[in-house]
Specification:
The structure is a single chain. By secondary structure, this protein is of the alpha+beta class. It has one domain: Nucleotide cyclase, GGDEF domain (Alpha-Beta Plaits), CATH 3.30.70.1230. The chain is 51% helix and 22% strand. It contains nine helices and eight strands. Strands 1, 2, 3, 4, 5, 6, 7 and 8 form an eight-stranded mixed β-sheet that branches. A hairpin with a 3-residue loop joins strand 7 and strand 8.
Length: 305
């Protein structure tokens, strides 16, 4: 009787033992998988997260204190000023790519926006980032103090465009990634609107903001009827002072908007080589040709294998 009653207990203990061992083994396997995944992420990194983090790290923060080369705060209240909005053409299509390419697209756009802000900061302060554009402004006045004049703005606008196309060429030249975003960086263009008038500067928790009709008009003018991806549009109000130091085609243009009325402007139709200069343009073409040759040789080697 004692032996008969002991067998179920032994079987029961054996089953619990097997279940316990299975549970321990499952935990060990899960732990190993977790460690492998963690190790791979530490070694190779998560591409999208890394690129986004790098983008944020390199993009200048649009704080308006100590800008324009001055340590003091910008004035507040209603002032006469200039509004400049550089806007990346082709941004929407560029960002509508595959999920993996999206990280590369954001990195490229961040680099281009960063180049715009860096080129502008001597004469223009960034008010805010607007996805594919930067709202920049300056107070009208002498070159001393806070104020800027039309010549300063004209030079800044050309420097912005020059920096954009230099950075675009750099991204094309140094890239070997075959994803959609990286292959289409060269199709991004820059359009810039320049306007002037009475604007309101005010402070919100340490950040200068700008508002007023000139800001509204400048944004409206980005949605114009030109049908061009690359240009600088200077309103007639701003053109009384602002001249771009560049040889290119300049034409008159008119737009009409509800609530604003008719806006007269001048359109500067330029080509990137006109900004970069013959030597820089030739250098860029030579670099692209060398890169194309390198990729061709690599493909030939792969075929031979």
């Amino acid at each position: 009787m004692q032996q008969g009653t002991g067998m179920p207990e032994a079987v029961g203990l054996s089953m619990w033992h097997v279940l316990g061992m299975s549970l321990v083994l499952a935990l060990v396997v899960l732990g190993v998988i977790y460690l492998v995944v963690l190790f791979r992420r530490r070694v190779t990194g998560d591409a999208e997260s890394a690129i986004r983090a790098e983008s944020i790290r390199h993009l200048p923060v649009p704080s308006n204190r100590a800008r324009l080369g001055h340590a003091k705060a910008m004035p507040e209240g209603e002032v006469e000023g200039f509004v400049v909005i550089p806007d990346i053409s082709g941004y929407t299509h560029f960002m509508q790519l595959t999920r993996f390419s999206l990280a590369h697209a954001q990195y490229a756009v961040t680099a281009l926006l960063g180049s715009i802000i860096d080129a502008a900061e001597q004469h223009l302060a960034p008010a805010k980032l607007e996805g594919d554009a930067v709202l920049l402004y300056a107070v009208r006045g002498s070159a001393d103090g806070f104020g800027r004049n039309g010549d300063d703005i004209g030079r800044a606008v050309v420097e912005i465009a020059k920096a954009f196309y230099q950075k675009r060429a750099e991204l094309e030249r140094d890239n070997t990634c075959p994803c959609d975003a990286c292959r289409h960086v060269g199709k991004l263009e820059l359009k810039t609107v320049v306007h002037s008038g009475a604007v309101l500067l005010y402070d919100i928790r340490g950040h200068h903001e700008i508002s007023g009709v000139p800001v509204i008009v400048a944004h409206r003018l980005l949605k114009n009827s030109l049908g061009m991806a690359r240009y600088v549009l200077v309103t007639e109000d701003a053109h009384a002072e602002v001249r771009l130091p560049i040889e290119c085609s300049v034409s008159r243009h008119h737009e009409r908007f509800d609530g604003v009325g008719e806006i007269a402007a001048y359109v500067y139709d330029f080509e990137p080589p006109q900004l970069l200069g013959t030597a820089e343009a030739a250098s860029g073409l030579a670099a692209k040709a060398a890169e194309a040759g390198r990729k061709l040789r690599a493909n030939v080697r792969d075929l031979r294998r």
